[in-house]
Amino acid sequence: QVRLVESGGGLVQAGGSLGLSCAASARFLGSFAMGWFRQAPGKEREFVASISGSGGSRLYADSVKGRFSITRDNAKNTVYLQMNGLKPEDTAVYLCAAGAGGGMSTTRYDLWGQGTQVTVSS
């Protein structure tokens, strides 16, 4: 069974940067759109960024536009999220997801990772 495994989370001060990775356990990522979502305690899961299978199309939530960048390397079965200018409100568990549909809705993704914690201190 294919699994998605996130890494790269941690504690960073406001204004700092972190890079997240999402690795698939099998060679399949190139067929699917990939997304990053986040969920803070007591809040609903929210869209952060998505990228098409080829990498040619990207979407960002307004809250992260200009600060975060999503990329993918299909040869390495890995998707990345570079986060710059982090703010305390970016604190959450970040999850990656794969799906044929892609886009901003969680319903368009079929496979999810377990998540990695990102904490931004003020």
Jot down its keywords.
122 residues, mainly beta, 11 strands, globular
- Total helical elements: 0
Structural class comes to mainly beta
Separation of the first and last Cα atoms: 40 Å
The chain-level mean pLDDT equals: 94
Share of residues in helices: under 10%
Low-confidence stretches: none
Name the overall outline: globular
Q: What composes the largest sheet?
A: 7 strands, mixed
- Provide the β-strand percentage band: over 45%
Q: What's the SSE pattern? A: EEEEEEEEEEE
Radius of gyration: 13 Å
The strand count comes to 11
Topology:
Elements: E1 4-7, E2 10-13, E3 18-24, E4 33-39, E5 46-51, E6 58-60, E7 68-73, E8 78-83, E9 92-99, E10 111-112, E11 116-121
Parallel strand pairs: 2-11
Antiparallel strand pairs: 1-3, 3-8, 4-5, 4-9, 5-6, 7-8, 9-10, 9-11
Describe this structure in words.
It contains no helices and eleven strands. The radius of gyration is 13 Å and the shape is globular. The strands form two sheets. Strands 2, 4, 5, 6, 9, 10 and 11 form a seven-stranded mixed β-sheet that branches. The protein has a four-stranded antiparallel β-sheet with strand order 1-3-8-7, with no helix packed on it. It has strands spanning 4-7, 10-13, 18-24, 33-39, 46-51, 58-60, 68-73, 78-83, 92-99, 111-112, 116-121. Helix content is 0%, strand content 48%. By secondary structure, it is mostly beta strands.
